[in-house]
Backbone:
């Protein structure tokens, strides 16, 4: 009797070492690089907004030059944030169902409302109150479609009396105050999406939303540093060194907090060594070795902490040019480090089996809706949008909040009334 | 640019808004009436979901790992080829402890080649080194507090009143959150429909008085199925409860799974 | 004042700053559109039994069975079922060996499959993972041919020549 006939040709080589539930042996993880991008982008939004709030709420006057830039950056990234989600959904044409029948026990259902609230009630409104008088003035002076755009943006209100402007400022301030918890909610719920999954020990713990928020703040401030420096360089303008120093200071302290909380998470996991610890340790050593140890820990946290720390201690003794280089370099490393952190959380959580007995091997593709190329495009898109926003709303002459300058006729100036 | 507010304009705008608002419930009622004519009612063929409570139990002592249940499920439910299983079988092999290690038991191997659909190959270790080995069928655990239902953002997966946990494939948006949330790995993303899918307890069979396909083809009555609200005179579930002390999978997660297992080992998770 | 003649109804109310007024109107428009869209787009059976489309129960139950079930076979093939009833395969469903049968029940001209030796070995190949009371043989030692039905009658497996 032919034993080979009973003996069993298996359809695919197992995509795991050890044991994984059969449903986990798919060629690709369920949540891929698109789902890495989404928390990254919303984190940048929240962080950039917090930067702007430092000016309004905490009266950090040194950051005045980047106030509007931070808000515009937050806006550009917020507009692009839903794109990775839409591309990832199996049935994207049904996405509106999240707003129509939101299942309120699900953190994901909050997305539609938190996003809408943050976009409309916080960010757009704060931008509007800050820009309103400028829109009125620019609408009067700019011809063509640009003038029409500014007219539309005034919402038909052309009152720029001192009382109206004071009201704008008060309302803008109130919005900044509301905006801070809203920003935490916008990104905190993403952290909670992962933190609420008790089935996955890599994700499901109480620190996850806090870690997400802290790393969001760090990445957002770093983004503002980079955007500000690149913009000033592109316009051949001077960088306000006091502003840069203040940003570097906030970046450093935010990074200290972030590293502290992530360190606490790590210490707790290693110390209490709960059920899944063994497999998660194997997974980090095999699958996440470079992204975790080199990307997130060394280059993304330790190196920037060290250099920014030196900058804080020895600030006056370091020449301006070196301070700028250090800031730029650290901000870049931090941005990469936070991206690595998102990768480690999202992809890492899917690299080991829920049976806690196996580690999976997945392929990451280059092409296709969920590949590297699409992610690259999606990440460049907010920058393209930001360039357009800067051209429209951030004139070249240094603009301090509350002051307006004409766009086309430098001879005629309209100061604030 | 100045807008002049006048009474006529304002009243006109308010009137238009109110008319628009009133039109919405009228439109909706009309749409519902049309849909009611075209679409079947939610009660399938006189079946009342509130009058049943389906229960599944697994007697691991009886499983021979033939894989007929896995194959039947794939065929019955048109599950796509590939690593997509609504039910599967795991084989556990627990080795004897190595001499001198001072341990009570040795290493454990678990495998499930193609879900066990075509049976199992040779053991990973020689027979004489084996302490225990057995097969464990797995499926949706019909949790009382399903984590999957809790995290669905749109209400596409739900606890039916009769105990089944179902997915509405016409409403699922394919986000995959439920698949991540299920601790037992019983859900998957169907590559063809791009929606989540899982064991439905062969809902289309049990509502017609048939048994789920896996229960139908099991040669050794490993899978015990019944209706807790309408027990038959020779109900196999009652005998199962009488004969066996039972366990559930991953009780510490608080999902309160209702599928009962008899004869599993601590290594089964 | 940037708007309104004195007969405007709004002149009677305490003066709302124009930007606030515009924003209130815009917000009201957005909120009403949202609730309108929600009313229109929510499926009619949603919420009938719980937070889901009630019609989904019917849709899931409306799928057509592929396996007919043992009772269906007995309606026509009562002889074979009776033969089975006394032997070791009495609790074995017909469709385990003969494959899904609903197609055959609907159209008897379409014959179900008849399986060969490899199918028997699937259950009866000896393995220590299988319970001891289950009849199993090491097929390599038991039989060198390719058709178990040379000796065994599937519907009466204990009958051996």
Residues:
């Amino acid at each position: 009797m032919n034993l080979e006939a009973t003996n069993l040709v298996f359809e695919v080589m197992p995509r795991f070492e050890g044991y994984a539930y059969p449903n986990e042996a798919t060629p690709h993880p369920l949540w891929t690089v698109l789902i890495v991008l989404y928390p990254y982008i919303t984190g940048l939004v929240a962080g950039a907004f917090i930067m702007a709030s430092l000016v309004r709420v905490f009266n950090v006057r040194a950051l005045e030059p980047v106030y509007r830039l931070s808000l515009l950056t937050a806006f550009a990234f917020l507009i692009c944030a839903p794109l990775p989600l839409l591309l990832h959904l199996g049935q994207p044409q049904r996405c509106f169902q999240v707003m129509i029948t939101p299942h309120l026990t699900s953190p994901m259902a909050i997305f539609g409302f938190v996003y809408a609230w943050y976009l409309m009630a916080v960010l757009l409104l704060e931008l509007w109150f800050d820009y309103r008088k400028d829109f009125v003035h620019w609408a009067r002076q700019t011809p063509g479609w640009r003038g029409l755009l500014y007219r539309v943006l005034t919402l038909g209100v052309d009152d720029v009396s001192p009382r109206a402007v004071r009201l704008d400022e008060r309302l803008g301030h109130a919005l900044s105050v509301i905006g801070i918890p809203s920003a935490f909610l916008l990104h905190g719920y993403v952290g909670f999406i992962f933190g609420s999954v008790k089935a996955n020990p890599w994700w499901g713990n109480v620190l996850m939303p806090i870690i997400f928020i802290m790393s969001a703040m760090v990445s957002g401030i770093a983004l503002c540093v980079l955007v500000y420096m690149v913009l000033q360089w592109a316009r051949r303008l001077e960088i306000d060194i006091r502003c840069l120093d203040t940003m570097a200071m906030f970046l450093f302290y935010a990074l200290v907090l972030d590293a502290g909380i992530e360190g606490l998470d790590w210490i707790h996991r290693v110390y209490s060594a709960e059920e899944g610890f063994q497999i998660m340790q194997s997974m980090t050593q095999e699958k996440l070795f470079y992204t975790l140890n080199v990307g997130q820990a060394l280059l993304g946290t330790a190196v920037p902490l060290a250099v920014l720390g030196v900058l804080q201690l020895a600030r006056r003794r370091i020449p301006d040019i070196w301070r700028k280089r250090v800031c730029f370099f650290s901000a870049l490393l931090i941005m990469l480090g936070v991206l690595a952190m998102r990768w480690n959380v999202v992809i890492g959580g899917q690299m080991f089996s829920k049976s806690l007995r196996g580690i999976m091997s997945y392929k990451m593709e280059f092409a296709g809706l969920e590949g590297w190329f699409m992610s690259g495009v999606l990440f460049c898109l907010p920058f393209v949008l930001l360039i357009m926003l800067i051209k429209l709303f951030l004139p070249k002459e240094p603009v301090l909040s509350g002051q307006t300058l004409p766009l086309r006729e430098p001879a005629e100036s309209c100061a604030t009334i | 640019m100045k807008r002049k507010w006048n009474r006529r304009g304002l009243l006109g705008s308010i009137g238009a808004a109110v008319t628009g608002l009133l039109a919405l419930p009228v439109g909706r009622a009309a749409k519902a009436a049309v849909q009611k004519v075209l679409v079947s009612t939610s009660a399938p063929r006189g079946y009342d979901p509130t009058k049943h409570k389906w229960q599944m139990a697994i007697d691991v002592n009886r499983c021979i790992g033939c894989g007929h249940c896995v194959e039947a499920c794939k065929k019955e439910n048109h599950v796509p080829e590939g690593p997509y299983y609504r039910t599967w079988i795991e084989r556990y092999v627990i080795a004897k402890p190595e001499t001198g290690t001072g341990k009570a038991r040795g290493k454990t191997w678990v495998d499930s080649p193609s879900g066990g659909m075509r049976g199992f190959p040779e053991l990973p270790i020689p027979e004489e080194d084996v302490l225990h080995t057995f097969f464990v069928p797995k499926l949706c655990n019909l949790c009382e507090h399903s984590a999957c239902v809790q995290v669905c953002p749109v209400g596409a997966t739900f606890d039916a009143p009769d105990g089944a946990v179902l997915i509405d494939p016409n409403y699922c948006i394919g986000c995959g959150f439920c698949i991540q949330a299920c601790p037992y790995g019983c859900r998957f993303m169907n590559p063809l429909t791009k929606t989540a899918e899982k064991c439905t307890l062969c809902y289309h069979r049990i509502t017609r008085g048939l048994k789920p396909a896996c229960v139908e083809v099991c040669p050794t009555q490993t899978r015990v199925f019944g209706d807790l609200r309408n027990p038959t005179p020779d109900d196999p579930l009652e005998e199962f409860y009488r004969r066996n002390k039972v366990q559930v999978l991953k009780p510490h997660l608080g999902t309160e799974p209702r599928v009962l297992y008899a004869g599993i080992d601590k290594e089964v998770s | 004042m940037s708007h309104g003649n004195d007969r405007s109804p709004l002149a009677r109310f305490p003066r709302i700053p124009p930007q606030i007024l515009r924003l209130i109107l815009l917000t009201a428009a957005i909120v009403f559109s949202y609730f309108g869209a929600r009313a229109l787009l929510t499926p009619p059976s949603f919420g009938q039994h719980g937070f889901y489309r009630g019609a989904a129960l019917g849709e899931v139950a409306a799928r057509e069975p592929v396996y007919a079930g043992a009772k269906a076979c007995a309606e026509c093939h009562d002889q074979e079922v009776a033969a089975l009833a006394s032997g070791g395969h009495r609790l074995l469903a017909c469709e385990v060996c003969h494959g899904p049968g609903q197609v055959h029940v609907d159209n008897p001209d379409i014959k179900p499959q008849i399986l060969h030796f490899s199918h028997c070995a699937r259950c009866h190949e000896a393995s220590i993972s299988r319970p001891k009371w289950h009849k199993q043989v090491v097929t390599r030692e038991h039989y060198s041919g390719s058709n178990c039905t040379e000796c065994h009658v599937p519907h009466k497996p204990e009958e051996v020549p």
